Amino acid sequence: MDPDKLAQLKIDRQDMATPKPRRRWKRFFMIFILAGTGLLAFYLYHQGLLSPATSVRLTAVSLIYPSQVITDLNASGYVVAQQKAAVASKGTGRLEYLGVEEGSRVKKGDILARLENGDLEAELNQAKAQLASSRAASDEAASELRTAQRNWERYQDLWKRHLVSLADYDTATDRYRKAQGALQAAQANIQAFQAAVERVAVLIEYTLIRAPFDGVVLTKDADVGEVVAPFGSAANARAAVVTMADLASLMVEADVAEAFLPKVYADQPCEIQLDALPQNRFPGKVEIIVPTADRTKGTVQVKVRFDSLDPRILPEMSSRVAFLSRPLTEQEKEPRLAVHRDALTKRDDTQGIFLKKDEEAQWVPLPAVTLLGDYVVLPTPFQAGEQAVLKPALTLRPGARIKVAE
Questions:
Q1: Cα distance between residue 14 and residue 20, in whole Å
Q2: What DSSP assignment string belongs to 25-36?
Q3: Distance between CA 326 and CA 72 in Å, rounded?
Q4: Quick check: helix, strand or coil at residue 240?
Q5: pLDDT exceeding 90 applies to what percent of the chain?
């Protein structure tokens, strides 16, 4: 290498000892950004925004009844009217009048419908006229009998005094006996025509379809103009005109498995819940245990009567019956807000539950815990329909993100 050029080379130690101001500012700015990002990440993670969502199962806060604690067994069934009839006519004819609709309330003896009966009305008028004629003939025969009797009595007195001939006396006697026979025949005719009038009246009554008991019309099975025949003997004839039931005789017919039958007894207190009215419970008692079993289902039918009927209860409604170990008190008839006891947990020696609020777990402490069977009774601030975390993990913290397990 050239010695002259090497001699010209030197190290500028002043530039190495003093860094440039611009590079120092950039380094400080990068450190500040990294520190801020770390603090923000730490804050977000602490708040649960960057932590993974915990998979949980939920249970609903709902109204429960204290009767669930004293229930011996449950059975399902249907509301059935114990007095129900498909009302039909004994006579055959065309339906001329229908005076009821579905839901009509009727009294015993009310005319529900009427068949055409013009021919029977004419026959009834004829029978009544014949009855009137026979009565007139009877009056005439009675008058003739009185005349013949007086004449016979005179001839009998004259015959005893030998003032008339035997032939005249026999004639008077014969006339008297004929008058007696004529009156008897007239009276028999009256009875015959009176029976004819009653017969036609009964036939006319058959055309009037009346309510057999107090009740409500459930279905209308025929319309005006259709032919109605007893037992539906004709191919296109209707057998029943309406179907009605006595709603005061409504009971629940429940099927109880044979294995649980020893837990059921007469007049046992029960609580009835209808699927159509899920928010209502109706008290009742066992009316009768039907003394036969269904071999195909292995059940025995139990009839449960309502303590008091509600107008909303209708026949054929599906129902569930809870057979209780004792009668309910007045306080036990009211529902209470509760959640399943598996939602109860502890955090920092305090009992409480986690509620699902949006996508987070909200901690709600319960200083006092009241158990009702498998449920925890909740105070007033809670509302039915809220969702609580079921069996929360020990690592679940207030404010943590949660997701519903599939």
A1: 11
A2: HHHHHHHHHHHH
A3: 10
A4: strand
A5: 34
257 phi and psi, to 5 degrees? -60, 145
Helix (H, G, I), strand (E, B) or coil at 161: coil
Q: What is residue 20's DSSP assignment?
A: -
Beta-ladder partners of 251: 80, 305
8 A C-beta contact, residue 114 and residue 208: yes
Range of the domain at 173: 118-206
Domain shared by 220 and 103, yes or no: yes
- Among residues 206, 233, 261, the one where a domain terminates is 206
**Strand-strand pairing, 240-245 and 360-365:** unpaired
Task: Indicate the SS3 state at residue 179.
Answer: helix
Residue pair 61/338 in contact (Cβ under 8 Å)? The answer is: yes
- What is the C-alpha separation between 359 and 53, in angstroms, rounded? 9
Task: Tell which of 300, 315, 333 closes a domain.
Answer: 333
**Three-state DSSP class for residue 281:** strand
- Do 372 and 393 reside in the same domain of the chain? yes
pLDDT, tens digit, 9 for 90 and up, residues 326-354: 998 887 788 888 888 888 888 888 888 88
CA–CA separation, 14 and 221 (whole Å): 116
Let me know: does 350 contact 114? Beta carbons within 8 Å. Answer: no
Q: What is the CATH classification number for the domain harbouring 241?
A: 2.40.50.100
Looking at the structure of the chain, the number of domains it has is 4
- Count Cα neighbours of 243 within 13 Å in the Cβ-side half-sphere: 8
Rounded to whole angstroms, the Cα distance separating 157 from 133 reads 36
- pLDDT tops 90 at residue 147: no
